[in-house]
Amino acid sequence: MADARESRSLADLVDAANGPLSDPMRNRHVGTGSRRFELYHFALSVCSHKVRTVLFEKGAPFVSHDIHILPPAMENYHPDYVRLRMQGGKGREMVTGYTGRSSTTTEGFDPCVVPTLVDHDADRVIVDSRMIGEHIDREWQGGTELCPARLKREIDREINIVDGTPHVAVLYGAHPDGDFRPAMLRKNMPGAHDYKIMKLMEGRSLAVGHPHLTAAYDAKIRKEAAAKVYVASPDLMRSATDEIIGIVGDLEERLADERAWVCGDVFTMADIHWAVSLFRLQWLGMGFAWTGRHALNDIERPRVAAYARRLFTRPSFQEAVIHWPGNPPSEFVQEFYQAEQASTANAVSQQRKEGEHGRDIKEENLTAAVLETMRGARTPRAQKVLNAFTRHLHAFLEEVEPSEQEWEWAIEFLTKTGHLSTGGRQEFVLLSDVMGATARVDLINHRFPDGATENSVLGPFFVEERPTFPNGADISGGVSGDPMVMTGRVLDIDGAPVGGARVDIWHSDDDGAYDIMMKDRDGLALRGLFRTDAEGRFWFTSIMPTSYPIPDDGTVGQLLKAANRSVMRPGHVHVRVEAPGFQRLTTMVFIEGDPHLDSDPVFGVKDSLVRPFVKTTDLRLPDGQKAPSPCYAVEYDFVLTKTT
Length: 644
Ligand code: BEZ
Ligand code: FE
Prior knowledge:
- There is one protein chain.
- This protein has helices at 10-18, 46-58, 79-86, 104-107, 129-139, 152-163, 167-172, 183-188, 192-206, 211-231, 234-254, 269-283, 288-291, 302-312, 315-322, 345-351, 366-373, 380-400, 404-419, 427-434, 437-445, 555-562; strands at residues 27-30, 37-41, 62-66, 116-119, 124-127, 483-491, 502-507, 527-531, 537-543, 548-549, 568-569, 572-578, 585-591, 610-611, 614-616, 631-639.
- The longest helix is centred in the middle third of the chain and has 21 residues, at 211-231.
- By secondary structure, the chain is an alpha+beta fold.
- The relative contact order is 0.07.
- The strands form 4 sheets. Strands 1-3-2-4-5 form a 5-stranded mixed β-sheet, with helices on both faces.
- The model is unreliable at 1-5 and 339-350 (pLDDT under 50).
């Protein structure tokens, strides 16, 4: 099948990938100036550590998208992220198996991991830490030259060694003779591969119809299935640990001439890779590979120990790894997180107690200070919501720059809206309606597939205690008006009838009034609950509804007047359909030709919901009975979405 999305521009792919990422704590501009580099990475990932250290070492600013790659979030499996990342993997062999290493030179291209760099100036996506690091070093004029040509061979050799170290194996798997990993891993890693595979299947199901994407998910699913087998193998886990101890032993030999850095007396890209590797090993509890005095290794490697210390205290590494927000210490690296080693603003903010934001509040740091107070939010969801609310509120105030009188007025407006919200009159809901918020929440929560009937807003006039009617009943309850007959079917997405579905109907009269608003009426009318027959059909008689104004005598009316907006809802019949095994559909059928279809104050109209209500004579109902003549006939087939 052709995949139209493959030809989208890089800017579109970036926009799509950024869409689901909205948390300002994790999406920010690091440094000042150029927004050339946009990096997708994760606080805790070793490959991300390498790229961040390169960026800080070079002094290159970047737009940071710190995405969660651990369960349950697994944002790196989102099809929009995978699609963007795949731009950087074009022409490369996809990952086929699992070796416990993250080297992309030997393992193939993994479409669902971090880091991914977008270089907007070069209009390119670059994937994987080694290639990204080299690209930034080549392209960014400034900071340390990390890959001097004269040392290329030595640097490549060292990076190959780091890349070949089975870090991932010892992260996910326990040593057969005892799990020496940090407590947080001992607790969280069992079952991780099953969870990853489940989330990948979810991502894959969203990508159906895009063969290049489903192929990517298939490759990654194979890799994770192989990883699960690998880390469960005592032999493989034992040899991964032995291999690491051997790699550290070899490094000790190469450091024998007391050189400061691994390739000589200048700090290079190879040192960045070693810094990240050794820190990860220490974080994992494998510092015994150089400290010795451990059941698995009793040989000390003092030169590696001193080298590691030099690397861990380098400012770029401190900033990019140790004090990067959201990169928590394990019990094995606590000493590097002590206050006296804090060297950056990040570090300072990391040490503040929850809820504290510092005392030097200025216009330019107020939003950050408020965000800082949200750091202690009890759940990631609470944090996301509070952050977004803070960020948008302050952006609004910065844009509008209200006078004090205006701000007082705004607070009074909301207070009055609250006071007007009682019982049947819900002014706050109406405010949400006219601001499109109700429609937005409705759209977010009812993303039905193509071909299914679209949802729309419920409105305030649905009544739980409505009467039940047989098909064909007249539900007008004696309210006068032009007769209307509605017929239709309830179908599944394949067109098969859904028998026994509950079909709820409610609508206004030809004055725009609902029964519960009619002062001289006692009892319900113009509403009822039907059930579809075996062929999925329902039908009833009533009177024609018409357009009507939403309540405009409160604060919402004031707002609509100020904006010179219409208060008129176009004429419609509300319908709610429920059937076991299907998602509930709440929608409306609008009268074609209504003059208010294009200016619905609550944003409920969709083209697919507009139908002709045709004046007809001698109409026969599905059961052969005669319909009132003349009547306005409307037909609509409601297509339901299966529950997942
Ligand atoms: C309605 O269609 O019944 C409605 C929806 C939103 C606000 C007011 C009325
Ligand atoms: Fe309505």
